[in-house]
Design a protein that fits this description.
Largest sheet: 4 strands, mixed
Radius of gyration: 18 Å
Strand content: 15-25%
Distance between the termini: 30 Å
Number of helices: 7
């Protein structure tokens, strides 16, 4: 999701409400894309729960009075997120199944992270006027594992229920799932899966009665 920042430098009057403040936000503030002036809540303010990046980022944050660190529960509160009109939440995940269920915190039974703000932002954008929830990830990770699966790995935690994701984005395309039937969802996700696995996913979907 952090990589998205590089494509937003020609935008203007964007705002931030984020759990993690990264280098991409620093770059977008510097180029004038982000100023927070159109935010209905926290106008001109860039609230976050924590900062992570290179040394230059920490210097930038410490010298910018408009960047405000707040307690994580206040940042990820879905009812606070929902107050931002047109908010687009961008997160990633561990894996997703063909119905759109999202696991963001475990590999099977092995817990590798907490749920973080993933569901909170998903629900917050669901309630926000014109809100959108986007899950962005590579179809195949560096370890060679596929992210889109016919079913979640046994024991995997459902971090985000399938009805709270609007878009799934991989390096092979975009699947807009909101409002789609189960069959349409399966076909849309197979279309953005890694080409190596699409035939197998299609066969699995037919066996499961999804398509």
């Amino acid at each position: 999701p952090n990589a998205v920042g590089g494509f937003l430098k020609d935008k203007r009057d964007l705002g931030i409400h984020t759990e993690m403040f990264t280098t991409a936000f620093m770059d977008l503030i510097r180029c004038g894309a982000i100023n927070g002036e159109r935010k209905p809540v926290d106008k001109g303010i860039h609230p976050c729960a924590f900062v992570e990046g290179e040394k230059e980022l920490y210097t930038f944050v410490s010298q910018n009075k408009n960047i405000v660190l707040r307690a994580a529960p206040d940042i990820v509160d879905p009812f606070i997120v929902a107050q931002q009109d047109h908010i687009a939440a961008i997160n990633t995940c561990v894996e997703v199944d063909l119905t759109g269920q999202v696991c963001s915190e475990s590999v099977g039974y092995k817990q590798i992270a907490g749920s973080g703000g993933a569901f909170c932002f998903a629900y917050g954008t669901f309630r926000a006027a014109h809100g959108k929830n986007i899950l962005a990830f590579q179809a195949k990770n560096k370890g060679g594992q596929y992210k889109i699966k016919s079913m979640l790995t046994p024991g995997a935690v459902v971090t985000i229920p399938r009805n709270y994701v609007d878009y799934f984005v991989t390096d092979y395309g975009v699947a807009k799932l909101k409002g789609l039937s189960v069959t349409e969802r399966a076909k849309a996700l197979i279309a953005i899966a890694h080409p190596e696995q699409r035939e197998e996913l299609t066969a699995d979907a037919k066996k499961m009665g999804l398509i």
